[in-house]
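Example record

The entry below shows one chain as it appears in the dataset: sequence first, then structure tokens.
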Amino acid sequence: MNSDPWAGIDVTDAHAHANRALVPRLLATMEDTGLSAAFLVAGGVVPPEELSRTILTEGPGRDVDADNADLLDAVKGENRLEVFYFANTRRAADETDLELIRGCAGIKFAPGVHGVGHLDPRVQSYVDIARAESLPVYAHCIGNGHLSVEQYARLARRNPEVDFLLGHAGRGNFDLLAAHEIRSAQNVLFETSGGFDHVIREAITVLGPERVVFGSEFPIQHPRVELTKLALAVPDAALPAVLGGNIRRVTRGAGQ
């Protein structure tokens, strides 16, 4: 008998990373952990050490493209997996981006990779596509400047027709401010990977469970770690929404 607190819940991972080689490992991990579906972002864009350094120093980032086309091809025919387009915000969106985005479930920004602020016109060009295609936007925020949670919330308030996901519990770990910074931006959901369970409880209190979503950050973090944290932090009655219902509400819904 499965004793996991999330057993019987339709669990969807709102944020995992993969490339073609990692897809089989991800599917095996999902099967072992009890995940129904996952939304993926192309991984391996920069080495982990470089990304860590950029996050800690708030830039400057660099001009680099993810292989979105290869990841889309790698998950073709696997209805448990869908892709968020990893935008290179060092340039404005063009027709090539649009063609690929139309096959995706959302758009992801990574200020820690590209170093481009949330209010930059190049970022807005992708948000315009998200609006036109009815897709959500996901971003990881860092620091207190142009890459910050506060600036991301401003972007969301400028674009109320678009659903936004705040990745990694804000700045990660012990960021108790992030939930408060996005509170007035009703179109922003709070994705939990990397945040302490105390921070998740704060987000539930400040935002309500309907604005909190589970993400794993696979393969850097095992989904079971994040699910165990949420099972401790989220009221039982809210688990179905947090573990899958909320992300399905704002996406095309992997696995459906």
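Notes for this example: The chain is about 40% helix and 15% strand. The domain at 12-249 is CATH 3.20.20.140 (TIM Barrel).
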